[in-house]
C-alpha cells in the first residue's frame, strides 16, 4: 500500500502498539506525526525514523488536555497542509479493585482513554472536512470491551465506550467522507516475544500471540482510500482468542 501522499497522526506512538503502527505507515511512505507524553522515547523514535529516510515529527502531547490536542492538530496542519489519517491509540490501564479506585483515578483513565478519542477525532475531522478527499480515523479499543477479568472496570468501560463512540462518529462524519473504525487487539506482545511459552501461543486459533505489526497492518487496510466502504465497524484482531471455548480438563 502506498501512503506517500498522506499525513498520519498516531497518538501514544513512542512505545508499544502505537510505535509499531507509526513504523508501518512510515515504511509505506506516509508523513508520520508522533504524539506522546513521553518526550524522551518520542524524540528518539522520531530520530530513528528520520535516520532511515522516513518523514517523521514528534509533538509532545498529553491527550488528557484539550489545549494540547488542539496544538497537535494545528501544528500538523501548519507543517503538512492537511491531515488524512488519525490513529487514536493513546491509552493506559487501571487494574485495581473497584472498592479502592478513587474518583481521581477513574476520571484520569476516562480522560486518557475515552475523552481523548472524542477530542482528537473532533479536531482532526475539522481539518479533514476541508479537503475533497475526506479522511480516516481509527480508534484502538480492546477485546476487553467484550470480556473481562476482575478489577478491570475502568479499562473495560473506556474500551467499550470507544466502540460505541466509533459508530456514532462514523454516522456524524459520513457526510464529509470521513470513515471511522475501531480495532480491538487481543494479546499483543510488546515485550520480549521469545520469552512467551508454547501454552501462550496455543490459546489462539492462529497458534501464536500477536505483535504490533498485526495491528499496524489492520490500520493500513482500514485507512487505504479504496476501502472507504468500511466504516462504523470494529475489527477484532486477536488470533481468534475471544472465539475459542476453553474448558478445564
Automatic annotation (TrEMBL):
The keyword Nucleus does not apply. It comes from the Bacteria. Transmembrane segments: none annotated. SUPFAM superfamilies: NAD(P)-binding Rossmann-fold domains (SSF51735). Pfam families: adh_short_C2 (PF13561). Keywords: Oxidoreductase. Belongs to the short-chain dehydrogenases/reductases (SDR) family. This is Glucose 1-dehydrogenase. It comes from Bacillus carboniphilus. The lineage of its organism: Bacteria, Bacillati, Bacillota, Bacilli, Bacillales.
